[in-house]
Amino acid sequence: MSQLSAVDATFLNVETATHSAHIAGLGLLDPASCPGGRFTPEAAAELIARRAHLAPRPLKRRLVAVPFGLDHPYWEDDPDFDPARHISEITLPAPGDDEQLARAVALLHERPLERDRPLWEMTIVQGLSGGRAALYVKVHHAAIDGVLAAETIAALLDLSPEPRDVPADDAAPRRGPGPLAMAGTGLLRMATQPVSAALAAARSVPYLDEIPGLGTVPGVGAVARLAQSALGHEEPPPAPAAAPPTPFNRPIGAGRAVAFGSLDLAEVKAVKHALGGSVNDVVMALCASALRTWLDKRGDLPDVPLVAGVPVSLRRAGRASGGDAGNEVTIMTTPLATHVADPASRYAAVRADLTAMKHRFAASAGAWARDIAGMVPPPLAGPLTRLALRAAPATGVLPLNIVVSNVPGPQFPLYLGGAKVLAYYPISVITDLTGGLNITVFSYDGHLDVGIVSCPALVPDPSDLLDHLTDALDELKHLARE
Question: Catalytic site residues?
Answer without folding.
Answer: 141
